[in-house]
Amino acid sequence: MCCIADQNHRCDENDIWTGRTKAPSIPRVTYGTAQKMRAAVSHKFGCNHKLGTQPWSEHPTITGKFIGNPSLSVMVSQYMVSLCCRKVRAGEAVTSARAMDEATMKHFWDFAWATPRKEYGPMSHKWKAENPAEWAGFVIRMMLLLLYLVSMICLLHYDKALRITWADITFQDTTTFRPADFCVKLELPFRKMHQYGGIALFYIYPDKECPWMCLVQMFAVWWVLARERCENLDGFIFRKKIGTNTISVNPTDGMTSNVFLECFHNNLLDIGVDPHPYGTHSFRRGGCQFLYKVCRWDFRDICDWGGWAENFDNPGTIFKYLLSWNDNPREQREHYMNPNRPRKDPCHTCGRTCHCA
């Protein structure tokens, strides 16, 4: 009941105690925020209070005693369904940010490497207004490209990606130093705890076939560029943007969320893409779709890699990452049943071009 009361106070149009419509001056949050509130409460009850992920119900043998997670009760589930219906009826469009795809990442990669490597001196406001495309130079674009990739490949929310430091990165190899064994280990102390305790690590290997999706290459490129500007590599990896092509040398001066979103939208305009459907959650959704559609991972592997629950107590969560009307269409509708539809790009492993490869 407390879960419903808190969500009603922030989300619903009607007051839970009086049943009357709230005053226009009282702010309401969206249905998406209500889902995040419920997820946070469920995690609090399940992990911190050790109540698990079973629905809240009365004990089968002890009268008056309840077991399970209160946030997963039938009452809360019914309220969330009715809240969604009321929000849609009121005109709220429950829309996720458009997922980033591999083709757009390749455009980012091509545009960044085509940017001239030059130093920028002091610039006036008039020069900036006359040259809007010069909002970032080669160094800034490389840093942004690494930020895009680490958010997408590791299924990280952008605020967690911005908090990564050089101490969280380890360049690994074997004693024989074979190129095939080289990898980058990413250990995030602030990341959501693994389902079985401890912190789940990310082991990233090179992708020579698709360099625009190769996180190892981008870590190496940014390591070289950062060493040229900072004497010691410590503190935040993604630094505050200064001017057009300079980063802060202060190790604790990281890039802010607002600057990241502004740079992301400017980057989309550079490659001729409308930035309005995209948001800071686009890379996490895009990474989930990339691992499922391109890399052919199954749901359990994606959940394990992203640190999500593997018992599928709420399967709608992962499907919202995989499916949305706002995403770019994967295939034209007239080609679904067409036996002569155009072939796909060859698989780098088996060489097949069929759509089931």
Topology:
Elements: H1 2-11, H2 31-48, E1 57-58, E2 66-67, H3 74-89, H4 102-113, H5 125-130, H6 138-153, H7 158-161, E3 169-172, E4 183-186, E5 202-204, H8 215-229, E6 241-242, E7 246-247, H9 257-270, H10 282-294, H11 299-306, H12 316-322
Antiparallel strand pairs: 1-2, 3-4, 4-5, 6-7
Helix pairs in contact: 1-2, 4-6, 6-8, 6-10, 10-12
Rg from alpha-carbon coordinates: 24 Å
- Total DSSP helices: 12
> Percent of residues in beta strands?
5-15%
Approximate shape = globular
- Please state the structural category: mainly alpha
Average pLDDT reading:
79
How much helicity do the residues have?
A: 25-40%
Distance from first to last alpha carbon: 49 Å
Number of strands: 7
Strand order of the largest sheet: 3-4-5
Q: Segments where pLDDT lies below 50 for 5+ residues?
A: none
